[in-house]
Amino acid sequence: MNLLSATSLKKTYKDYTAVRGVDFSLTSGKCIALIGPNGAGKTTILRILAGLLKPTEGKIRFSGQPANADLRKFIGYLPQYPVFPSWMTAKEFLIFSGELAYLSKKEAEERAEKLVEEVGIKDAWNKPIGGYSGGMKQRLGIAQAIIHSPKLLLLDEPVSSLDPIGRREVLTLLEKLKEEMTILFSTHILNDAEEVCDDLLLLHKGEIIEAGSILELRKKYQTSVIELEFQDNPEQYLEKLRALPSGTSSYLDRNTIKIPAADISKVRYEVLKAATEENWPLVEFHLNRASLEEMFMKAVKK
Ligand SMILES: Nc1ncnc2c1ncn2[C@@H]1O[C@H](COP(=O)(O)OP(=O)(O)OP(=O)(O)O)[C@@H](O)[C@H]1O
C-alpha cells in the first residue's frame, strides 16, 4: 500500500532547477533509500516532504489524508547536519522536543524514557549532549525525530559523517526501526542502502532515473561474471570456454578467465559439465555479482 505519493514535484532555486518534476511513491512498511551523488537533489526532496520547503510545482499526497493536510504529525525528520543544544541533557532535549510536538509533559517524559532505551543511550541520558560521540548524537537525533511516533521517518545522510562504529550503531538501529515505520533515507553510500533498504529511488541531476525493489533492480542490471582459475596454462581453456554456447565472450584477465553471464545457471551448467567431463584442473570457480555501484553507473549512463 502506498503511504505517500509525490506527483510532478519540482523545485527551482532562483534560476536553478534542483528537482525536475519527479513522480514517486513510498510503500508502507518499507525502508527506501534515496540514492544519488552530491547535488542530485536528495536534501531538497526530503525538505519538501518534511514540509520545510515549498515545491515550485507538484503535489504530495499522504495516504488517508486530504490534499493539503498538515503532515507534520505523520512525519519525523532528521536533517543532514542536526544541531543540538550542547548544554542540555538528552532527557531534557527529548522531553522538550516531545512538548513541541504537542505531547503533554507526562507523555513526553514517558516517550523519552522509552526512546532512550530503544536507541541505546539510556546510560548517558542525564549527561549534557556536548559530551556525546557522533554516533550517540545521531541516535539522539533519530529519537527526537520519532518522539511523536510518526508513520514516516525521513533521514538525510544519517550515517555519512560517522566513523565505522557510529555507522554500525545507526544502521543496526534502522534495522530495528523499520519494523515500526516507513523509512526514507538519503545516502550516496550504496552499501549502506543495500544493507538496510528494500527499495531504491535513484536520483540523478534532479530526476528519478530508476525506482523499485533492490532485488528487481539487481535483476534488471545484472551482469554477473563467472571467474575461473586454473592450476596453470589458462589460455588453453579459454578456447574451450569460447566454444561453449554461453561462453563466447570469455576473456582472460591476468590468470583468471572471466565469463560475463546474463543467465548464470546456464553458464554454470555448461562450464561445470565441460570441466567435469574433461577433468579440467580448476582451482577456483567464483560468481561475482554486479554491485549496486555498477548498477548505479549503468543507470546513469542509460
Ligand atoms: N537554497 C539554495 N539555493 C540555490 N541552490 C540550491 C539551494 N539549495 C540547494 N541548491 C542546489 O540544488 C542542487 C541540489 O541540492 P541538494 O542539497 O538537494 O542535493 P543533495 O543531493 O542533497 O546533495 P548533497 O549530497 O551534496 O547534500 C545543488 O546543485 C545545490 O547547489
Describe the structure.
With 302 residues, this protein is an alpha/beta fold. The chain has 2 domains: 2-213, P-loop containing nucleotide triphosphate hydrolases (Rossmann fold, 3-Layer(aba) Sandwich); 222-301, Alpha-Beta Plaits, CATH 3.30.70. 35% of the residues lie in helices and 28% in strands. The chain contains 10 helices and 13 strands. The protein has helices spanning 42-49, 90-100, 105-119, 134-145, 164-177, 190-196, 214-221, 235-242, 264-277, 292-301; strands at 2-13, 16-27, 31-35, 57-62, 75-78, 152-156, 182-187, 199-204, 207-213, 224-230, 251-253, 256-261, 282-288. The strands form 3 sheets. The protein has a 6-stranded mixed β-sheet, with helices on both faces. A 4-stranded antiparallel β-sheet has the order 11-12-10-13, with helices on one face. A hairpin with a 2-residue loop joins strand 11 (251-253) and strand 12 (256-261). Helix 3 packs across helix 4. It is elongated and about 75 Å long. It starts with a strand and ends with a helix. The mean pLDDT is 91. The chain binds adenosine-5'-triphosphate. Adenosine-5'-triphosphate binds at residues 13, 16, 18, 36, 38-44, 188. Adenosine-5'-triphosphate (ATP) is lined by residues 13, 16, 18, 36, 38-44, 188.
